[in-house]
Amino acid sequence: MARRPIFRPALSCPPYVEEEVLDFDWHPGFAKSQAQKSIASLHAAARERGLSPVLEISSKSDTALGVALSAFNLTLRLEDRTMPVEVAFQGSKVFENGGPFHDLYSASSRDAKTDERIRSSGLLVGFNLLGEEWPTEPQTCFYDWLYITAMYQHPKAAREVVGYKAFSDIAFNPKKSLNCQARSAAMFVALSKQELLVQAIRNKESYLSLVGGQSANGQRSPVQRDLFSDSG
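The structure corresponding to this sequence follows.
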């Protein structure tokens, strides 16, 4: 048996996400088929709680949508460049002994996440997205904003995702990690259904005021250029 969270939109107030931890049968092994067995078991446990349909968001998902929405695959336009959400996140990290490592913006998702500097530069103290400083509080706020903004830039996928009641990421272990793409997807749906998306992605100040954080400065977000053009 294993215990993992699933995330559902919270149509009320921050953090706009509700988490439910479920017990399910775990199928060990590194093969994708084993992961999908675990996903099926987790989703069966969710159905018993009245949560269906659930979308697995990861490279192990058995749906094309779930794979496409993995942070390793979902792309984000930043000014004149496009990169996966994972790359934007890792390349923007600022540590007590180094960073941001903006050269990672040109790396693959896997290479960016496993870069030695990410592991050896000390404690995470903030983020710098193309020159704009972001705080580490509220927790997950920067990652969530990157993901939500990327989702908004892919309207076809966004229309599909709002049809799901909950989201999972079989690789996410809350004992080892903080940010989760399934959590971010649930927040996107909640903000979408409450017509708060435009406010959320307008700029850093607007977003942080919405989720309960405080801005570090008054600069406009660099992501805003060409944000509302057709995409996806």
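The first helix runs from residue 32 to 48.
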